[in-house]
Recover the amino acids of this structure.
């Protein structure tokens, strides 16, 4: 054990002894801030990167790790609920989501070539989501048409395998009628992009037969509302909880959550999946930028397409390796129970257990309330108890 590790342990013990409560930020982050004396106060107050405050547990003796090179690790996912007649099967939990950049036509051509090569050469099907027309008549990959606003869809124009509809907050009833009409005509999967976790919206959308919910985490956390200034992990957690509540007492028939946003590396994809996202919307701009940055000549479309192709292959290998290290042969067996955090704020927003304690901060507060109830011989009903817990959490951390 080196001096830095000894210092971190001593600091943790002293803080716990003095305050009687676990720390609310990572000691590692505190050390980084203290060593960065050249930065101004504004930089020191920069919010923590929540993604970096989450770690995954390794496999235990009762659940040994798999070897992804010798054993099959399942990444395949079928998009479409039980009643969906023409499901779309993806080889990886990724939809290439053309949502954040007005790409030039040549740039999109490089992406189309890469997706075709993956489908033909590697048997890897990735879905592409866009509101742009797909002119590539030799397309080998599934295309999800994104409908924004009041666009109409004629049955003769069904040149796509899936749909992504943008929910209209201004007129719920008209959107529900719009969704009802499309559902009668279109037999493939329909995903609905929403801006809120209000149960009324989600319940209505799923009742009609939508196959999943899309959460654009960047859009949701930047617009006015309860998620303004929040983190993507909060949106994913709340959306998953809302879908689970819809299915309370019954088995999920295939409704899924698609999380789109700043998922620019495998670590974030895995953590988002463990938090409850079934599929990740990977931005087109990130893929193209990752490839183009390695070439000065951007007109070399074949080179950029090959770079995207290799990037996806590498990502597939990484996505197999992480669940294998956790002891799972199926990527979709991961859950928040496989995660730990050093941040109380992250624990509050996601119910992830705190490292070294193996309980979420909410669970700690609930246990303290239970102990107080027993000690004082009180009889508090569950509803009032949860309000008290929420009040204590809000008072302490303003969440």
């Amino acid at each position: 054990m080196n001096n830095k590790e000894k210092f971190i342990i001593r600091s943790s013990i002293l803080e716990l002894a003095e305050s009687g409560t676990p720390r609310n930020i990572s000691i590692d982050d505190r050390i980084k801030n203290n060593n960065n004396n050249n930065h101004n106060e504004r930089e020191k107050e920069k919010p923590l990167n929540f993604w970096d405050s989450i770690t995954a547990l390794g496999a235990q003796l009762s659940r040994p790790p798999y070897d992804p090179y010798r054993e099959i690790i399942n990444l395949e996912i079928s998009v479409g609920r039980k009643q969906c007649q023409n499901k779309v099967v993806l080889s990886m939990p990724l939809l290439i989501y053309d949502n954040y950049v007005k790409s030039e036509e040549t740039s999109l051509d490089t992406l189309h070539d890469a997706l075709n090569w993956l489908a033909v050469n590697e048997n890897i099907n990735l879905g592409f989501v866009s509101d742009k027309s797909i002119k590539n008549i030799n397309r080998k990959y599934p295309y999800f048409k994104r409908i924004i606003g009041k666009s109409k869809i004629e049955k003769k124009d069904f040149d796509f395998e899936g749909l992504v509809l943008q929910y209209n907050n201004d007129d719920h009833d008209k959107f529900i009628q719009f969704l009802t009409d499309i559902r009668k005509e279109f037999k493939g999967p329909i995903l609905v992009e929403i801006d809120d976790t209000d149960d009324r919206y989600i319940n209505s959308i799923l009742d009609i037969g939508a196959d999943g919910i899309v959460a654009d985490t960047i859009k949701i956390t930047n617009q006015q509302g309860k998620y303004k200034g929040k983190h993507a992990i909060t949106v994913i957690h709340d959306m998953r909880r809302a879908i689970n509540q819809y299915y309370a007492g019954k088995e999920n028939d295939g409704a899924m959550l698609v999380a789109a946003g700043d998922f620019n590396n495998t670590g974030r994809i895995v953590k988002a999946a463990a938090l409850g996202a079934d599929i990740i919307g990977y931005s087109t701009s990130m893929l193209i930028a990752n490839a183009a940055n390695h070439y000065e000549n951007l007109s070399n479309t074949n080179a950029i397409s090959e770079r995207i192709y290799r990037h996806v292959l590498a990502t597939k290998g990484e996505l197999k390796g992480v669940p294998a290290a956790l002891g799972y042969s199926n990527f979709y067996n991961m859950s928040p129970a496989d995660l730990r955090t050093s941040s109380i704020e992250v624990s509050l927003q996601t119910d992830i257990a705190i490292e070294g304690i193996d309980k979420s901060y909410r669970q700690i507060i609930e246990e303290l309330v239970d102990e107080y109830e027993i000690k004082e011989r009180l009889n508090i009903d569950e509803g009032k108890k949860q309000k008290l817990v929420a009040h204590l959490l809000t008072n302490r951390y303003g969440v």
Notes: Confidence is low (pLDDT under 50) at residues 38-47. The two ends are 37 Å apart (CA to CA). The chain has three domains: 1-46, 77-336, 359-399.
